[in-house]
Amino acid sequence: MTIAPGDPIPAAELLDPQGESFSLARYAGAPLVLYFYPKDDTAGCTREAQEFSAAKPEFDAAGVQLLGISKDSAAKHRKFTEKYGLTVPLATDPEGAALEAFGTWVEKTLYGRKYMGIDRSTFLFGADGRLVREWRKVRVPGHVEEVLAAVKALGAG
Q1: Mean pLDDT of the chain
Q2: CA distances (Å), 26 to each of 29, 49, 64, 111, in order?
Q3: Which terminus of the chain, N or C, has fewer Cβ atoms within 10 Å?
Q4: Has 64 been annotated as catalytic?
């Protein structure tokens, strides 16, 4: 079973870029945008992280926290952040607990070969910690603007 609108944020354990464990529960009390992405330093993922970073001041002004999540290691996240000057915090889900809870660990097909991977997805939680909106199978162009419009419609900030 995966998360659905109205559900509370799962208390999945993640690692920050320093390798320290934390729970998603620490984001309770303020609106939150979580975005799951496949891999650091690939074209689409880099563009998405850069666009969220560029829009971070607007999310901050609306009182909304941001967090990007992938299975990449804490060390890879640090290198990725430094290489592109990213300002959005990134977290690692080494055990896949958040990926499972959000239903973003899915079977994919590339050139006829099936494999498991991360479905690019974004989730918006209200200040009450409940899911307000989700975007699945995200296409990067225009996505950050769409999420920001949803945040503004939520009346956050």
Answers
A1: 91
A2: 9, 22, 14, 40
A3: N
A4: no
Residue ranges in the chain assigned as alpha helix (H): 43-61, 74-84, 97-102, 143-154
Q: What amino acid occupies position 22?
A: F
Type of residue at 77: H
**15, 94 in Cβ contact below 8 A?**
yes
- Domains annotated for the chain, with CATH where assigned, are 27-154 (3.40.30.10)
Digit-coded pLDDT (tens) for 108-131: 888 899 988 899 999 999 999 999
Considering the candidates 34, 45, 66, 156, report the single residue annotated as catalytic: 45
Residues in the chain: 157
3-state SS, 50-87, equals: HHHHHHHHHHHHCCCEEEEEECCCHHHHHHHHHHHCCC
Name the percent of the chain lying above pLDDT 70.
Answer: 98
